[in-house]
Amino acid sequence: MAASEKSPNSFQRQWKVLLALSVAVVLLVIAAIVVVSFGSRDRPVAARVSSLKTPSVARVNPDVDVGSPASGALAPDFELRDQKGRLTSLREFRGKVVLLTMIDSHCTTICPMTTESLVEALRMLGPAAAHVQLIGINANPLALRVADVADYTRAHDMQGKWRFLTGSLAQLERVWQGYHVYVAAIHNDIDHDPAIFLIGSHGRERREYLTQLSYEGVAQQAQILAQGIARLLPGHPAVRRETSLRYMPPLGPKDTVRLSAFGSPGRMVVLGGDHPRLLLFFAGWLDENSHLQARLAALADYASMAQRRHWPMPVAIDELSTEASPAEARKLLSALAPKLGAPIVEDASGRLADGYRVQDLPWFALSSPSGRILWHHDGWLSPAALDRHVRDALSSGS
Fold first, then answer.
1. With bands split at pLDDT 50, 70 and 90, how would you rate the model's confidence at 290?
2. CA separation (Å) from 12 to 7, 8, 21, 23, 151?
3. Contact 174, 141 (CB under 8 A)
4. What is the pTM of this model?
């Protein structure tokens, strides 16, 4: 047989291959048409619009979590006591969209961010928020009393805004396990997943979010939550107030920032750059007003000593992004400021706290003229302890 000639079997094999490829192409085209047609028809128009309104940049913004789809199964039910001692179950809120989250009743780190993002999400929904129920489940195995969840509710001005539930350790463990949430007490420190569950009006889990440890991301996370809720509400209401979901870089000790001082009209306080400072990040909800004044007064003792020794001067910074009532916080601080020997400013965006790597409140941070953080401390300090720590940090830094 000549080299250019082909056997009948060879032609048959080629024909079969071409036929198979043609069929595969036709099937792929049909499948694409079906997916586009049915996929767009089955999804509500408002859901498609809402997903488009969430900028794709949010998916690469480390300060927020756009959420992940849940199984759609019925959310585990429970019967626990709320902050007023009322027996409360999940099933009694059928017909409403529910945002359910796990909150440590003594937490001063990430839980206040979660709490404020829930409340801000409802503000963004306007009147439609009447069809939404906020529920917190106690995630502190060492503080199980009704008084514990009541104290947290009062400190964060959440009266009438949610049900914060607690119970026996066995009851709560069943809830944590039912929602696959990790909770542990390690050397009296509480560790838990900062999870938020979006539950539809028929009681089914629809989406799950994780709060990120970012003060600047609180308002952004609230918008994402509000958009998720709106997709499940009748009529798919628009989110009334929106914030940019673009990632905002933090403002650290290398950045020069000028802020207005409370109680001193026209006075500007300069932070960062070549201005070394001792910063105290705090929030008004940390203590009762009288206690807060005494805590902040410790800075006055340090200020007079620092001036004599040419040490970095102190500035108190209210972490406004976690305040449930920003207007009340500003009013309180304006009254307190003239009584202190150190200026008080506000971190309205949260970018300062993120830039100085604040992990808890209160939080001390000592910066150098070169823009380094020489020392930080979690928790309140006496004037004597503060003096000792700063002296040691400056000696080590030099």
1. low
2. 9, 6, 14, 17, 82
3. no
4. 0.82
